[in-house]
Amino acid sequence: MNGTAKRDFKLLIVDDSNIVRRRIERSQEFEELRLVGTAGNGAEALELFSRTDPDVVTMDLTMPEMDGIECIGHMVAMKPSVRILVISALADKATAVEAMERGANGFLNKPFTDRQLNEAIAELLR
Amino acid sequence: MTAAGNWGSRYILAIGIGAALAVAMGAALLMGFRLATQLHADIGSLQTASALQAYPIEVGRELDSLREHLEVRAYEGNARAALGESVRHFDENFRALQAADHGDAARLDRINTQWRRFHALIDPVIGFHAEPYIDSDTAGTILSQAGRAQFARVRRASLYAAEHAQALRHELAAITGRLQTAASAAAVRLRGLLLGGVLAALVLAAAAAWLLISRSRHERAAREAQERTRDIMRTVREGFFLLDAGHRIGSVWSDALIRMFNREDFAGLSFHDLLKDLVPSETLATAAKYINLLWGERAHENLMKSINPLSQVQIIRENERGVKETRYLQFDFHRVSGPRGIKHVLCSVGDITSSVLLSRELQESQGNANAQLDMLIGMMRTDPVQLVSFLDTADAGLRLINAIMKEPARSDAEFRRKLEGLLRELHSLKGEAAALELHSIAERLHALEDLVGACEARQELSGADFLPLVLKLDEMLAHLRGVREIASRLALTRETPAPAAHDPLATTLETMAAQLARDHGKRWRFDASGLAGVPPRYAQTVKDCLIQMLRNSAVHGIETPQLRRSRAKSEIGRVSVAFRRGEGGYELLFEDDGAGIAPETVKEAALRKHLITESEAAAMDSRAAMALIFRPGLSTAAGVSMDAGRGVGMDVVARCIRAAGGRIGVSTNPGKFTRFKITLPATDDSDSAVA
Fold first, then answer.
1. Which residues of chain B lie closer than 8 angstroms to A82, CB-CB?
2. pTM for the structure as a whole
3. Which are the contacts of B354, defined by CB distance < 8 A and separation ≥ 6?
C-alpha cells in the first residue's frame, strides 16, 4: 500500500473440522499472515469477524448454524475489502460461482495439497 | 490497430493542409480581383491621358487653321466649331482624368493651371459670333472691325499654343508614362498571383488525389483483413464468438457453431437464448452469473477457468440424418481487454464428445480391472478350500435357481412363489460371497436380486418377465466359471493350502464381522468359540446360519455408538458365537447385546406385509409374535441394502436348521439382547470325532 513496509494481514480460519483448521494454520507459509481466530460454524465466524476485523478469511461452505455462502455475504457487507478464500469439498461449479458472486475471491477444493493452498493464498494476497 | 490510428492522424493532417490551401486560394482570388479592377481603372486613365496628349497640339493646329481662314477671308465657322469641339473634348477628358487618377496631383494641378490660361485665350475665339468680313468695292473683302479683333485674339492664342502646347503635351506624356508603369506593375503582380493560385490548385488536387489513393488502399487492406478473418472463422473447428456486456453474441463468429447448434442466427443472439433449450435452467443461471463475474474483473483467469460451469456440457441434438445424438461441448471464456477495461468476452466452444467418451471408457475398463483385481485379492485371501466350497455351493445354488425357473407355472400366485424361492437362494449366496470378500460376485448377486425385486413389484406376472432373469443368470454362471478358472490357476501357483492359523470358519466370520461393522458404522467385539468342533456334516448349515445372523445383528441388532451411549450401554457392542456338544446332539448359541426384538414391531411388520390379519395379530402372544421372524417375507429394516431389508434371512436360517433335523429358538429382551439357540441332532461320525 504505502512504501516498502510489509503489511500485516489478519487471518481468520473458518471450518467445521478442527483437523482442517489446524492443517490450514500449519501449512500456510506466509509471514505477513497473523492468525486472529478460528471458527467452526458460520455464527461463530461472524461473531469473531466483527470482533477481530480480519483481512483474509478461509471459509468452509458446509457448516452447522449458518452455511458458508450466507456467511460470505455478511462478511463482505461488513467489510468490503476482506479477501475470502473458499475451501470446500463441494466440487460443483454452481456452488463456486455462487460463492464468487457473493464476494469470495478464491476457490480451493478439498482435499488440497500444501502447495495448492499456498498458491491459492498467494493469489488472494496479490 | 496502430496502422489505423496512424492513418487517421494522416487523414486529419491532409484535411488541414487542404483547408489551408483552399483559404490561400480564396485570398489570392480576392486579391487578383482587386488588382484586376485597379488595372482596369489604370488602363482607362491611361487611354484618357494618351488621348489628352494629342489635344494641345491639335488645338494649336486648329488655331493656325482658323488664322489662315481669316487671312484668306474664307469661311471660318467650321474651323471655329472644330476648335470648340476639341476644347470641349479636352475639358471632358481632363475632368475624367482628374477624377480617376490620384497618382500625381501636383502635375495635374500644373496642367490645369496652364490649360486654364490657354482656355482663357481660346474661349473668346470660340465665343465669336459676329461677321468677320466686310465687302468693299475697292479692296474687295476685308476684315471687319470685329474680324480684326478676332484675328488678333486668334494670333495671341496661336502664339500661346506655339509656346506652351509642347510643354502641356510633355506633362500629359509624363502622366501617361507613370500610368503605364503602374499598369504594367499591376499586370506583373496579377500574373504572379495567378501563378500562385494555379500552384495552390495543383497542390490541392495532388493532396486530394493522395488522400483518395491512400484511403482506397486502406480500405482494400481492411477488406483483405476482413476476408482473412472470415477465412479463419470458416475453417476453424472450434466455435468462436464474442460476448458483449449484455451477453449478446457479436457479428463475427466461426462456422463451426452452425454444426454444433444447428442454427445460423448467432449475430445479436443472447447467450441465454443460445443455450436455453440445451442445458438445464440451473446450469444456465449459474453460467449467467459466471459471465457476469468475468466482466467484474475481480477474479483472475485461472480461478475463473477452474469454476467454469460450462466446461463440460451434455447436449442432445439432431445430426445430419435427423437422428438424436448426445454430444459434449466445452465452453471456454477469455476476457478481451482494451484501454478502458474489458471490451468483450471471447467464448470458444469445442466438441469434446470423443474425449469424454474415451475417458469414460478408460474409467470403465479401469473399474473392470479394479474389480478383477479386487476379486483376485479376495480370492487370494480366501482359503482355497473355502473358495472351492463356496463355488460348489454357488453352482448348486444356481442350479437350484435354474430348476426353480423351469418349474411350470401358470397363475400369478405360482409365479410369485417362484420369485420368492429365487430371492431366498440369491440372498444366501450373496451372504456367503460377501463373507468371503468376493465383492464382484456379491455385487452381481445383489443386482440380480434387484431384478427379481422389480419383477415382484409388478401387478401381473407372466413367463416373459423371467426372460431378463435368465440372461442375467447366464452371465452370473459365466462369471462364476471365470472365478473357478482363476481359482484353479491360483491353486496351481500356490504350493499347498496354507495351514489355517486357527479355525477357518471363525476367520471367515471375524472378517465378515469387521466388514459389516465398517459398512454400517457400528462397533462391536466378535467372539467365536468351539467352531473347530463343528462336524463336517453340519459345516455348511452352521456357516450359512451364522452369516445370516451376523448380518441381522449388523442391521437390526447392534445400535450405533451414539445410540448405545444414550442408552447407557458400552459404545462397543458384543456379538458372540459358541458351538458345543449338548444333550443328544449339538448346541449353537448366537447372541448380541443389541436392541433386541420387540414383539409389537414384528407384529406391525407382519401386518404391513399382510402375513397376518389384524385379528390374528390381536390374538398373538409375544412368543407367537417372535415366531413370525422365521416366516418368509418379513423384514423390519427401513431400507434395502446389501445386507438386509429384502425380507429373507431368518426364514432361510430356520429352513436350513429344519432340513438338518434341528430346531431353532429365540429369546430377546428389547433394548438389551437377542439370543438364538439352535440344536442339532448328534451324528455318528461326529460322535467318533469328538470322542
1. none
2. 0.47
3. none
